[in-house]
Amino acid sequence: MPRTTPLLSAILAALAALPAAAQEATSEKPSNATNLDAVIVTGTHVSDRTVAESTAPIDIITPEALDATGTTELATALARALPSLNFPRPAITDATDAIRPAQLRGLAPDQVLVLVNGKRRHTTSLLNLNDSIGRGSSPVDLNAIPIAAIERVEVLRDGASAQYGSDAIAGVINIVLKGSGEGGSIAGRYGQYSAGDGEQYQLSGDAGFKLGENGAIHLAAQAGHQDNTNRARPYLGTVTPTSNPPGRVVHRYGDPEVDDAAFSYNADWSPREGIEFYSFGTFSRRRAISNGYYRAPGNPNNIPSIYPDGFLPQIDNHSYDRAFVLGLRGKTAGGWNIDLSYNRGQNQLDFDVRHSLNRTLGEASPRSFYIGSLETTQNLLNADFNKSFDVGWLAYPLTLAFGAEWRGERFVQAAGEPASYITGPEPGAPGAQVFPGFTPSDASNRDRNSYSFYADLEANVTEKLSLGLAGRYEKYSDFGETTSGKLSARYAFNDKVALRGTISTGFRAPSLQQQFYQSTQTVIVLGDPTPYEIRTFAVDDPAAVALGAEPLKAEESTNLGLGLVLQPIDALYITVDAYQIDIDDRIILSENLRGPAVEAFLTARGYPGITGGRYFTNAVDTRTRGIDIVGSYRWDLGNGTLNLTSGYNRNKTTLERIAANPPELTAGGLNLQRIGRVERGRITEGAPRDKFFVGGTWNTGPWRFDATATRYGEFHTFNDDPSGVRDQTFGAKWTLDLAATYAISGWTFTLGADNILDEYPDEAIYANSESGQLPYSSYSPFGFNGAFVYGKVGYKW
């Protein structure tokens, strides 16, 4: 693989030649530092609570922090600003390449709740099913929200199910949209990887407008393109009739090709004092072409007369994401604040496969197929009330909040065209290669609803002591009811030292996708070149029940947090927060249950050609313990300011219980483990154990210089070989991001490089690299593309 970096060398030379500036320091905010005086809206109903006064750890990520990276993806930008957020870049994992999951505090991607302007965001319709971090989850697509629309991001690193309901086990990410009726910006960026691929370009902008005398609307949009990257290498194994051709790169292993566009609006209008109508929405479309596993010319599922040189099938995904909120805020004569809202979110994912064939149709097989579609819809009605009361024995007002929510959810799985799934007269695996189409029996239309009630009390009991108490009752139409509670406290010993802590219970309802999604996919198991046709069964499918599946129930969690807040001098702010998160009945996807006995078992039940199966299960209890340390320091220099930030996260997840193996998996010669060593290892050691970053922003005159160094801790991969000989530990790695920006008359010009030292993760051992072809692990927390260099031009008014 070429490692020459001519473009990188040119940018380094340009950065080295930047002239010194002698003008006055600019007044820009720190690019990564938390603004201690910023009023927060996440995790509290107190109207004037700031970051420094919060009873739970919370970070504010500013637009400057998001803009200080070369990425066009919100999730990637957040991962670089938050030590506890992990956002790997999996490849050859079907649609997961297109909609990648993010982790907070080492937990599952769907165990963090995402809000936009304080309102629940819908999840994607995709299930991450293959060998990637977040396997079995249906996360929110953070990258569907244009970065240009964002005023700030508030990240609550604490359990919050008692306040927000399901999913808020690891924490809450609240994306606050720009709402000003004036000002705006436009920007263009271009970049590529130093290896010469992955070209990216994007145009984005936002603008605010007045709506009469008492209203405003802020619009934002972005559109861009990304070429695929490829870090695959030639085949190095023994040449056989079914092997890949030696000396030629036939795989594509890296980022997919992506075209995307997104739009958002945020509006409010007040007909008179005390009443405000508001609405906001986001709309996005993404086309991502991801790559499957190459089929060699002699592969039994190839037809040489169609593909004499073999073929590389591709999945062509089209994601349509829409969200809309309409609400009314007001204040009654009695002083009650009221917020009534309707919230609708929808994600649709269409699947096409190209450069493929259905082997059983012979030479009459099409080369391209419509596989089918997935769609999730969420409707919510919310009524929220809060008021501050003067209580005689309290030094400060008591804030009482309560409310109710109704939520309706729907999951639709639609069948593909017949040629994508039928079994023809010829031998071989039926259906489109790499991703057989959804069959009519796979298709489903499922829905459920839930309602909940909550109450929340918050008060500064004394000048030093703050307390909070919250409770929530929630009932679902499909699995029952649950109750959550939270107690929080903060004690300030003085202006420089405070202690805070929380105790809470929480839950996560099983998603409709986890209960009812079903399909067959071609799966490559780590270190095994044999493609398996693995079927994901709905938990109520008779074949799944015969393999030990049971109805899913909600995960239940207990969160403990204890933190120290230090501000020894005005310019220095440090927080240290330890946490423990126990999750009972955690929902995970079983191992790929495969082998001759399984194949015979499935054939006898009407699934010919299927070589394995899997289903979702509440089979494990886990405990996650960790610590977050975050600090910021502002240093005023003679000709500018230097803002330093640093963060460290260390966490460890252990398996506290694994449910007894169903007797069905040991009967009839199956001899299988529902939760084997691969899935156990993915949960406990697949993500880096720790992560550290230190960054600085130097503002001097018209210049701004950004630098961030990040250390990603070691992680591990596991194989189902009980000997463990193919297990691998990947060592810790450092990356360095640099950027320089020049501002003049509203214009900004930026040159920068992410991972400027061209760092790659350790290479996979030969036995795990598909005979040398796939040299890097998809678990790598910073990907495996090397250095990315970019330029940006922007204008603000």
The helix fraction, in percent, is under 10%
Structural class: mainly beta
The backbone outline, from C-alpha atoms, is: globular
- Radius of gyration, in Å, reads 27 Å
What does this structure look like?
This protein has one domain: Maltoporin, Chain A (Beta Barrel), CATH 2.40.170. It is 7% helix and 46% strand. It has eight helices and 35 strands. The strands form five sheets. The chain has a 22-stranded antiparallel beta barrel. A hairpin with a 5-residue loop joins strand 23 (555-566) and strand 24.
In short:
The protein is built from eight helices and 35 strands. By secondary structure, the chain is mainly beta. The model is unreliable at 1-33 (pLDDT under 50).
Summary keywords:
single chain; 797 residues; Maltoporin, Chain A; 22-stranded antiparallel β-barrel; globular; disordered N terminus
